[in-house]
Amino acid sequence: MLERIKETAAFIQARIENFQPEVGIILGTGLGDFADRIDEKYSIDYKEIPNFPVSTVEGHKGKLIFGLLEGRRVVAMQGRFHYYEGYTMQQVTFPVRVLKLLGIRYLFVSNASGGVNPSFRVGDLMVITDHINLMPNPLIGPNMAEFGPRFPDMHNCYDQHLIIRATRIAEEKGIKLQYGVYVGGTGPTFETQAEYRYFKAIGGDAAGMSTVPEVIVARHMSIPVFGVSVITNCGLSDEVGDHEDVQRQGAKAGVKMAELFMEMIKNL
What we know:
Helix content: 25-40%
Largest sheet: 5 strands, mixed, barrel
Shape: globular
Distance between the termini: 32 Å
Radius of gyration: 17 Å
């Protein structure tokens, strides 16, 4: 695996010449339009990249976008990978390993999620303060000591300094933020109401099918992480949602998320 990661990083590095991104951004369902705000320098389709998975989910365009955002060098994943697509956890998190070798020093993650906290409403932005992992851990298997320790600490896996900065920026910009714990499950079924009640009972505020594996691997490599969930449906209500609605709600709330991300990246 380590050799494949290095091979892929070398391929990308050759395509982007001397461009070294400082910030990696993973865009979730319905949030891919954020990449349009980047002053693009290079764009690479996932299918062109050796060893890279390919996005199979609608709403995930499947491109790496390199460019400038608020004067910072960034790389955005316009689409991520999920365990439910049939990929292994090592494949799901492979891009985060590659981004580390390309030079990122921060990782910003986003997702569309179902609200578990009854005070949340569709369109809310939830800053992720912690997570509960209900998926196989991506670090199972031989440890890649070159990246991090066998038993990485998951305290402060969502960087407290970045959360404080986000709070200050949101107050200045008049952006309403919620805060809470993200529950990561396998999918691809949307959760039952009994599962939502279970998530609430164990301390969850929002639930989805991504993000947690990427964050675990980022923290294994000591990369500070900031995460936001866009609440696209409220799981404890009687409303029935579908993937198309998740994409629509994600795109609408993504405007607020983009403003927050841009200001944070500007002030890193």
